[in-house]
Give the backbone structure.
Amino acid sequence: MALTQRLEFRQSQSLVMTPQLMQAIKLLQLSNLDLSAFVEEELERNPLLERESDGPEAPVAGEPATGGAEASEGGFDEEFAGQASESGAEGFEPVQEDWMNRDLGSRTEIEQTLDTPLDNVFSEEPTEVAARNAQDAVPTTYTEWGGGASNDDSYNLEAFVAAEVTLGSHLAEQLAVAFTAPAQRMIGQYLIDLVDESGYLPGDLGQAAERLGAPQEDIEAVLSVLQKFDPPGVCARSLSECLAIQLRELDRYDPAMRALVENLELLAKRDIVALRKLCGVDDEDITDMIGEIRKLDPKPGLKFGSIRAQTVVPDVYVRSGPDGGWLVELNSETLPRVLVNQSYYTELSKTIRKDGDKSYFSDCLQNATWLVRALDQRARTILKVATEIVRQQDGFFTRGVAHLRPLNLKAVADAIQMHESTVSRVTANKYMATNRGIFELKYFFTASIASADGGEAHSAEAVRHHIKRLIDAEDPALILSDDTIVERLRGNGIDIARRTVAKYREAMRIPSSVQRRRDKQGMLGNALSASPASSDRSRDPQPA
């Protein structure tokens, strides 16, 4: 068989993921904070990209989110900009001549104009006595911090702002006073670095002795000193040890309290009878001991430099409309508005001569135009998906969680003629502010549970709401078991298995029926013993 060479023309179709397309897909799943950070990086990198507020015209209040894209495609109208500048110049009045530059005439006229005699002024240059006193003056702490003259170059206003004290720095200051030996300070600093934000050390410190090359006895000796630092309970390795340290500080760590602290799992289970036997006390003493435990701080380290919780900023607002429907709108505060400065590109293109510079600015123009269009497309897609979610879950917004319908990505994707992956990216890290609170968009996508009577399926979130409502309304003398909950749900038309009820109950952190019976009976007993009527009856003499 002979091998020959020939030319052929073929026509085929293929899906190519360009870098811009990949970046557009990435923009869909970014949260508003990540998107703002991405746009800030692009603003620093691309000279042809600018914020809408940085342009020649300020943004108009209430302008739609897509205004940035429309403005960028049309470019800047130079003629309109010139007219605006001319009209703006006509609106300003000429500034009057400064009175300080006028010739005021004689001393009397000057004093009448200033409404004060000329003797009542400060000399621009210090006298010899003032200069000598300034040289002999000793700088104080106040002047070193910038508390002297406000025109001093070393004036530091930030010195007056209180710095946030972290737990590590607070412990390090005490470490410098507690130890003088360098080896002990090194061990102490190593242990302080292991303390988490709650004030706890890892349970196993054997690795510390191995890394530092120090005996375990030295590690324990330094640890015993660290556990006496402020705040009380810091550097503990468990909750029991943390509570024990605080009780020793209060001089309340007696044998009975020690038995209680060592059996906290029984206290969590509300097994008061077993605790009373282990501690060897009566009901009144065990109640007082539990009250003392509740007054302690289980996480002492959170007082120093705790992480601040960030408020969720919604991407979509849902409000009730005048016709009884729902109005869906984007939060314009979370949408970055950027423009393409085409006038700057036009000026540069007239002066650039090198081919490399021309290609660079052409790429910048292309990337800036693409980014503006991608942001506009992202906003439109979010609004379209959110509108369809509101339409599908109209019962939730009108009547509550119990009427939440089962919904999946395919139903929304088919309704708005998009792919499921696009809907999944849009609903990631996006939040919706409604009349019932702020919810993540993925909250409205729940699995379906079949109906017992063959009717419409129920949402898993609605079923969890039913389970929680049944448990909250149960009688303390008649606790509902999982089987009883299954029977009542089937009576309401929900076909569900017992293991599913147990899974939903554990996901909502609701204890079992045995634990709930113990908790509610203990609370009921405490309420009866603390009521004044029961105490009065106990003091009344019993009839013969």
Notes: The chain has a mean pLDDT of 77. The radius of gyration is 37 Å.
